[in-house]
Design goal:
This protein has about 425 residues and is α/β, with parallel strands linked by helices. It has one domain: Metallo-dependent phosphatases (Purple Acid Phosphatase, chain A, domain 2). The chain is built from 11 helices and 15 strands. Strands 1, 2, 3, 4, 11, 12, 13, 14 and 15 form a 9-stranded mixed β-sheet that branches. Strands 5-6-7-8-10-9 form a 6-stranded mixed β-sheet, covered by helices on one side.
Length: about 425
């Protein structure tokens, strides 16, 4: 799965041989810093926004932030452990590929370079064993033509950038999955394959649809089961092409994943009301059914284009919505411009059972001039990449929503990446 995973194997073996009771997340180098060849190019032959906050001026002063407390990192008092980062929608609008063209003119990585847009994520992805993105839309041929809302067909170079910053896999079932028909669906999966990004949620063949995605870490094998509430009124050419939301089907697929060797199963639910601050009935009923089945160790969601609450439901963590990982800025809905990344650490006890032993979050916002993903976590790992007033507003809104279902009392805390044990 990459250099940082392989490097952890020797460390884990030494710990186990010594009878150590604890372990910490894998760390090490992430994606290559040099400009690699772009498999996205070789593999292929919403809303729009106006005025919104941009990058801070040179005179901007960041808001005071709380000082991190030493020792609050996710040391894992377990036999084995691993960590996973999940994020919201990669939703690419025309303004973002215009930015990528401008960035390519500077970097020389023509025709489009999305790496600067996503660069802030690398600090976080370097500190987990698995990084999972959600690809909201199909991708086009490398040279286009591209299309935005309502029927997306976006530059495949966004996936090259996702790979470069450290993502390992992407979920692909969304209400936009069949925007470009079967050709677009298959082209998208081909690009993911060429980049070595695992994927689930949509499929090129019926045989592929029957195989669970199982990701390997030095500590465990992990499966992600994902489904979408619908396809915007469209219909896939084959009923096996896109996983549609059905708790019974997701539970059956989780059981199949465990039978195929998965130690940990994660559920991903693409559903919700756009721009909401609370989950709707379908999200709650689905997530609770998955949790009640006993087949899912962690559940998270995307689609609403807004950050939603986190809940500890009878011992199972559920994150209802992670907002947008990237998007064009909406002039009407501030929440559309915001996102949440979550780091779940999983530990195995002496009896062999796995569970989430630590769950943490970091807030983000998209800024423009230039467009960038910007962390506004309390330790500001990117520096002050958003104006102080906007940073404070995003943090306040995120905290109030994320903690609104009692998650902080259950142990959810902010991810201060600067104090991670493996840093």
């Amino acid at each position: 799965m990459g250099a940082r995973r392989i490097g952890s194997t020797a460390v884990l073996a030494l710990l186990l041989a010594a009878g150590a009771a604890g372990c910490s997340p894998a760390s090490g180098p992430g994606g290559a810093s040099s400009a690699p060849a772009d498999p996205a190019a070789s593999a292929t032959s919403g809303t729009t926004g106006g005025a919104a906050a941009g990058s801070p001026s040179a005179s901007s002063v960041p808001s005071p932030v709380p000082q991190p407390t030493p020792g609050t990192g996710p040391e894992c008092a377990a036999v084995r452990c691993f960590s996973m980062m999940v994020a919201g929608d990669l939703l690419v609008h025309p303004q973002l590929w215009t930015q990528a063209e401008a960035d390519a003119a500077v970097s020389g990585r023509t025709p489009l370079d999305f790496a600067p847009l996503l660069a802030g994520k690398k600090t976080y992805l370097d500190r987990v064993d698995l990084g999972i993105c959600h690809l909201e839309t199909p991708v086009a041929e490398a040279q286009g033509p591209y299309a935005g809302y309502p029927l997306f067909n976006v530059p495949p170079q966004i996936l090259s950038a996702a790979k470069e910053v450290g993502y390992d896999a992407c979920t692909t079932a969304s209400n936009h999955t069949v925007d470009a028909g079967t050709a677009g669906l298959n082209r998208t999966l081909g690009v993911l394959d060429a980049l070595g990004l695992e994927h689930t949620g949509s499929y090129a063949t019926e045989a592929d649809a029957a195989k669970p995605m199982i990701l390997s870490t030095p500590a465990a094998k992990v499966s992600v089961i994902e489904a979408t509430y619908g396809l915007n009124g469209m219909t896939a050419d084959f009923d096996w092409q896109v996983d549609l939301l059905d708790p019974a089907d997701m539970i059956a697929r989780a059981q199949a994943a465990r039978a195929a060797g998965a130690d940990v199963v994660v559920g991903a639910v693409h559903a919700g009301d756009e721009y909401a601050s609370a989950p709707n009935a379908q999200q709650v009923e689905t997530a609770h059914a998955l949790a009640d089945s006993g087949e899912f160790d962690f559940i998270y969601g995307h689609h609403s284009h807004s950050v939603l609450p986190v809940e500890n439901y009878n011992g199972t963590w559920i994150a209802y919505g992670l907002g947008n990982a990237v998007t064009e800025l909406s002039p009407w809905y501030d929440v559309n411009n915001e996102g949440l990344i979550l780091r779940a650490q999983f530990g195995q006890d002496g009896a062999g059972a796995w569970s989430v032993t630590d769950l943490s979050w970091a807030p983000s916002v998209i800024v423009r001039d230039p467009y960038r993903w910007c962390s506004v976590a309390a330790d500001l790992p990117q520096g002050a990449c958003a104006p102080s007033e906007q940073q404070a507003a995003v943090r306040a809104r995120t905290i109030s929503v994320v903690e609104s279902m009692g998650a902080a009392d259950a142990g959810l805390h902010e991810w201060l990446v600067s104090t991670d044990p493996g840093r």
